[in-house]
Design brief:
Strand content: 15-25%
Number of helices: 5
Structural class: alpha+beta
Order of helices and strands: EEHEEEHHHHEEEEE
Helix content: 25-40%
Largest sheet: 5 strands, mixed
Number of strands: 10
Shape: elongated
Number of domains: 3
Length: 239
């Protein structure tokens, strides 16, 4: 199917059955049509999934990788406005393709650094937080610390998102449990260092409000089955 705007070919669309799971084997016909046309956008769809292609690698030759993939049931479709008759612009779409390409590369690089911090990344962070010479031993130490902190940050981001989706209510039982724990610990540390951080499934009691220094977790959502987990073993003990 060809889509024209003001009698000018703008998009080629190849439609598959809604039961078809799109893959690269379905591109051959679209590639042939694209190569003999002047349009910049080609779309492969099964009516639910839409894959958008252009010629960002070799002008006039359709890329083998889609620059945009959308599922009309699960994804935000606001980006499709740029392809509407009123908003369609070759220049804007070219800019969008560039942005999406770099976003993908940036995402892949960040995920790689989060999982396995590179030497350059470790050195960059180390120099920002330390004025000492970064020896091999120091670099290994910083790599371990950075990996741990990245894991904590990502875990907190996920938890914070869930908390925003489902507001948390700290119950009187959790507050009472917190004060009991803080009272016990006041004999050995400053009680002001003991903090509470509530989550959907448990209530954490932390030292210095740091998730890396969890003292215990209170599982008080079910009042008929109260439990507390000590962080050194994380074994739940019923109360």
């Amino acid at each position: 199917m060809a889509i024209l705007i003001d009698d000018e070919l703008k998009m080629l669309v190849e439609c598959k059955s809604v039961k078809t799971k799109l893959n690269s084997n379905h591109l051959n016909q679209l590639l042939r049509y694209y190569s003999v046309s002047d349009c910049k956008i080609a779309i492969l769809t099964n009516g639910v999934d839409y894959w958008f292609f252009t010629d960002s690698v070799n002008p006039g030759r359709m890329d083998s990788e889609a620059f945009l993939k959308l599922n009309i049931i699960n994804d935000d479709l606001s980006i499709l406005e740029i392809f509407s008759r009123e908003k369609f612009s070759d220049e804007k779409i070219e800019n969008l393709v560039g942005e999406l390409k770099y976003k993908t590369l940036i995402r892949e690089k960040l995920l790689s650094e989060f999982s396995y911090p590179s030497q350059d990344f470790v050195t960059l962070i180390a120099k920002e937080v330390s004025s000492e010479r970064i020896t091999a031993k120091k670099r290994n130490m910083f790599k371990k610390l950075i990996t741990e902190e990245l894991e904590t940050i990502l875990a907190n981001v996920v938890l914070d998102y869930r908390d925003r989706q489902n507001p948390i209510i700290t119950t009187p039982e959790e507050i009472e449990g917190f004060y009991i724990v803080r009272s016990i610990l006041s004999e050995i540390i400053d009680s002001e260092r003991v903090a509470i951080r509530d989550r959907q499934s448990y209530c954490a009691i932390l030292l210095d409000d740091n998730q890396n220094y969890t003292i215990c977790r209170l599982y008080f959502n079910d009042l008929d089955n109260l439990a507390i987990a000590l962080f050194d073993s994380m074994e739940k003990n019923s109360i």
